[in-house]
Design brief:
The structure is a homodimer.
Chain A lengths: L11 H10 L5 H27 L4 H14 L19 H8 L3 H13 L3 E3 L11 E3 L1 H21 L5 H21 L14
Antiparallel strand pairs in A: 1-2
Helix pairs in contact in A: 1-2, 2-6, 4-5
Chain B binds a DNA duplex through α3 and α5.
DNA sequence: CTTTTTTAATTAGGCGCCTAATTGTCAGCC
DNA sequence: GGCTGACAATTAGGCGCCTAATTAAAAAAG
């Protein structure tokens, strides 16, 4: 999540000091904000670092995961373990599930296909569709990576007990809810909507 | 923090189910992990969205902030409100403070200078140095953006009370500590950094 | 049936981030 | 003096992400 966050966060006293010049600055809110992005960045780097060893990135890994989750239940009736519909997925479905644009997904699939991890097929029923399938090589890669990936996640969260984990999830979701309400382009100011 | 995280996180039951196939998967750890990255991503998008309206990005904003914090105290003795040494900063100092490589910083300064927000100067004492200074235009931009930026942060964190904010910061720091120990540069013994 | 609209995927072009290699400068040592 | 190593900044090339424009095909409207 390379987003240029400060390596060394300002101390809380600095935020208090800065708030004197900026009445809109809420020191404790800013502190949570900075720590959230800083920690997210660091955790992101740790897992991405692991992917790099296998020639992947977070984005490429995400695509393979979605495909693996989808195709694991192929032929079986339900998708209990994957919570995803079975069968190959289209670039549009992958983009929506991953939260990136379709143009971005095209690029990801391009390189994944070039490296032999996935394969584009054609849908006879609708020739606009280009369903994507995992190749055996891609399946092997994801299965090789996953155990280590899970161990890393477990290690990173290892200092939190179950109660703390529940608390984290609850508070993160509160923030996510608030942020999601502000995502649609210009809901910037608190409460005022001046669209023409 | 565009890192391709799942738009809809797997439900906890799905993680439990998946753990049957992967003994290394710790469901509650994975849940915190997914929520952390998802929330970080969303918050990142909200603030970045605001920057975009002013023709900035998170990275460009970060550089301007560092320069503003540094130059605000120029001439005065201390840097209480900024916690940064006064005067212009070199690309290397900016890169270290921002947590990006020097090559990345060169690119950021390139576009910021092209747009007239900063200016490269030359250091007569050491001609390798190219200290960067904020232009009046750059200073005006950052001062125009900051109030809205602070209001957005305040709004995003608005649903957390002071106790919850303290808890978040404490738990995030626990995670950050663990994660920092797993980054390769410091993870190896002796903490020496061979980058560059 | 033909035209228009919608939709899937891609292309084109830009920025931010990276690593590796390069250029220019300083500093130490013969 | 001249050589060598360290360091600042940059360049070159790649990936991931974006928006806007394009192409092709299906669906809807006349």
């Amino acid at each position: 999540m390379p987003f240029l966050m400060l390596k060394d966060l300002p101390r809380y006293e600095c935020l208090l000091e800065a708030a004197k010049k900026f009445p809109d600055l809420d020191p404790s809110a800013a502190e949570v904000f900075l720590n959230l992005l800083r920690t997210g960045d660091e955790v992101f780097r740790v897992v991405e670092n692991n992917f790099t060893k296998h020639g992947l990135s977070q984005g490429r890994f995400g695509v393979l995961m979605l495909l693996a989750r989808s195709s694991r239940t192929e032929g079986e009736g339900k998708s209990e373990a994957t919570c995803l519909p079975p069968g190959p997925l289209t670039p549009a479905e992958l983009a929506d599930a991953a939260g990136v644009t379709r143009a971005t997904m095209t690029g990801l699939i391009d390189t994944l296909e070039r490296d032999g991890f996935v394969k584009r097929e054609s849908d006879p029923a609708d020739r606009r569709m280009m369903p994507v399938k995992l190749t055996p090589k891609g399946r092997k890669l994801i299965e090789d990576i996953l155990p280590g990936h899970f161990r890393i996640i477990s290690a990173v969260m290892g200092s939190l007990n179950e109660t703390e984990r529940k608390t984290m999830v609850r508070l993160l979701n509160k923030i996510l809810q608030q942020a999601s309400g502000l995502t649609p382009s210009e809901a910037a100011h608190s409460g005022h909507d001046h669209r023409n």
